[in-house]
Amino acid sequence: MAGLAPESVQGVEKAIQGMIEDIQKLHLLPRQKQAFLCCAQCCDNTTNMQQVQSCVERCTSGPAQFQKIIQANMAEFQERFQRCVFRCQDLAKESMSFDATPAEQSLAEQKFKTCFDACGKEFQAKIPKLRADIEGQLKKV
Description:
By secondary structure, the protein is mainly α. It has 3 helices and no strands. Helix 1 (7-45) packs antiparallel against helix 2 (49-94) and helix 1 (7-45) packs parallel to helix 3 (102-139). The model has no long low-confidence stretch (mean pLDDT 93).
């Protein structure tokens, strides 16, 4: 999207990237570290391979749940953003006649760009809530 996308959309991309990096640093990496230490203890505390495997699965379930939570929230956010962009495409398409003149095409393109920029601004404003929702869900795991 970068390059052709308005600044607002590029801002969404940067904000999402920063949010994910922060969530990984603050929540996911510490949980993964705990899981690795827990797995090491599984090897120290049991001699039966089946018990070790069960212990390792228990240790790694938290980080796996974290990944699922993050992926599900990001997928929903992306789908909602795409629906906004589709509405912009529909708006532009509906503004042109079947045999559109260059002026109509230019107007439709401008409508799309304005709408696309508005989507970017709208969704950039939604990122703090997205982050709070993800972090709230992670704290419950």
